[in-house]
Amino acid sequence: MPLLPLSWRFAPSVYQDDGSRRVQLTVENRGNQELIGDLYLYTQGARRLTGRQLADWRTRFQPDIQQRLTLPPRQSAVITFFVPADAPLTRYFYAEFVSSTNRLAWTQQEINSPILIGNLAPHGANRPVTVQITNLNTGTGITKTTTADANGVWRVSLQAGDEAILDDDGFYTPVWLVHVKAQGALSQQFPETLLPGGDTLDPYLRSQLVLGDVDGDDCIDDADLLAVLFNFGGNNPSADLNMDGIVDDADLLLVLFNFGAGC
User: What's the domain range around 197?
Assistant: First the structure.
């Protein structure tokens, strides 16, 4: 039997207001002839299937989705579906494509985990952070605001309304531009970021904080120095660069030490 020239990819799931998760599956005909068949998909598997168990999964599980597909050569189809809120937190999708000449089964793990995780240590504990994620193909982006935890770790998840950044004429782009702006620090860009994950070696986007940017314009200059002096002795959060609860000599020294950075 001829092999099916079929590829597939799952975009990261997007959390919805009702607790469900939106998932986008793209299947593509990589061959030179039209491909016609039926796609079956089960979305709530509790474990990974291999071998004969995977090949025969439809004898044990009722598919959640069944769809007839006609794929011209080098063309793809996008199937959007929703995983219920009560599905296992770590789950497996079981899929099968059946044509008149052959069949292909595969499995995919999906986890309710943040789309991005970053680390602002050693000076990022409880620090507010703004994260911009941009689709390099379309220019579409989203902006998320969050706060790092006591270890300086921040997390960002996709929510309802964020789906547009995953759509690119039916093709999911795995590499993204991420812009991280921690309060009081210069911005840092990560030009080739995987979603989910970070990069292939380290799941964290690690920022080396250059503190002193009080006004948030990514230039540590006279304006930042004046802002610290104007708030000296107070507790203005934007001028309290080391976040110790008071604007004092330590914050002034941070501006002076990093003066001119980013300008």
Answer: 116-206
**Whole-angstrom distance, CA of residue 189 vs CA of residue 9:** 26
- pLDDT above 70 as % of the chain: 91
Residues 130 and 155: beta-carbon distance below 8 Å:
no
Task: Give 151's pLDDT tier (boundaries 50, 70, 90).
Answer: very high
Residues 144, 60 share a domain: no
| Residue 107 within any structural domain of the chain | yes
* DSSP character at residue 78: E
What is the band of 16 on the pLDDT scale with cuts at 50, 70, 90? confident
Residue 97 CA to residue 101 CA, distance in Å, equals: 11
CB atoms closer than 10 angstroms to residue 71: 22
Question: Does 32 share its domain with 86?
Answer: yes
Domain-embedded: residue 44: yes
Q: What is the DSSP letter of 59?
A: G
Q: What is the pLDDT at residue 200? A: 44
pLDDT, average across residues 152-166 = 81
Please indicate, yes or no, whether residues 95 and 187 belong to a single structural domain of this protein: no
Three-state SS annotation for 16-64: CCCCCEEEEEEEEECCCCCEEEEEEEEEEECCCCCHHHHHCHHHCCCCC
Q: What is the DSSP pairing of strand 153-156 with strand 35-45? A: unpaired
Q: What is the CATH number of the domain that holds 21?
A: 2.60.40.10
For the chain, what is the domain count?
3
Cβ atoms within 10 Å of 109's Cβ, excluding its own: 12
Report yes or no on 121 lying in a domain: yes
Mean pLDDT of 203-214: 88
Output 151 or 195, whichever has higher pLDDT: 151
Does residue 212 lie in a domain region?
no
**pTM, two decimal places:** 0.70
